[in-house]
Design a protein that fits this description.
The protein is mainly α. The protein has 6 helices and no strands. Helices cover 72% and strands 0% of the residues.
């Protein structure tokens, strides 16, 4: 599972960083066109939005795997079992949110086939599909994280520090 997740993470990071660079380029082009060339370029808004949405959702999935979402440590380092149990609880508590992303995100994306963007005339499905795609990756990443938490809890090994996980 780790091998598959490593491949998915690398793919997501490449795609997300490429889309984020394209997002910056579109915004830059739009500002230059509007302020210096005195022309209106409508498609840049939609391309930038699509790039931003995809990069955020792909990045959120990777952040879940790397455990770099915001957390608050409430126990001192000596409480290894309790810390591991809380980490496991946090990983399991994410599952209902991931369910919403996958199931209802798919429903939402499917509704996008009947709506299209204003200037590009593309179905909004291509933007909304980021939600269930990242949700499916989060399912795979969560399985790995939960299994790792169970292993740590059984072995009574302390969780890695935040700066050791990346």
């Amino acid at each position: 599972m780790r091998l598959i997740n490593d491949w998915i993470e690398r793919l997501f990071m490449f795609v997300a960083s490429t889309l984020f660079a394209l997002f910056i380029a579109c915004i830059f082009f739009q500002v230059v066109a509007r302020n210096y060339l005195r022309i209106s370029v409508g498609w840049t808004d939609e391309v930038a939005l699509m790039c931003f949405v995809w990069s955020v959702f792909l990045g959120a999935a990777v952040a879940l795997r790397r455990r770099v979402h915001y957390v608050v440590d409430i126990l001192p380092p000596g409480y290894v079992n309790a810390t591991n149990a809380l980490r496991l609880f946090g990983a399991i508590a994410c599952l209902p949110v991931i369910y919403v992303l996958v199931v209802h995100g798919y429903t939402y994306a499917d509704m996008g086939w009947r709506r299209s963007s204003v200037s590009l005339r593309l179905p909004l499905f291509y933007i909304f599909a980021a939600i269930p795609v990242s949700g499916v990756a989060m399912v795979l990443f969560s399985a790995e994280v939960i299994l790792e938490d169970i292993r740590r809890l059984r072995a009574r090994t302390p969780p890695p520090r935040i700066d050791e996980t990346s």
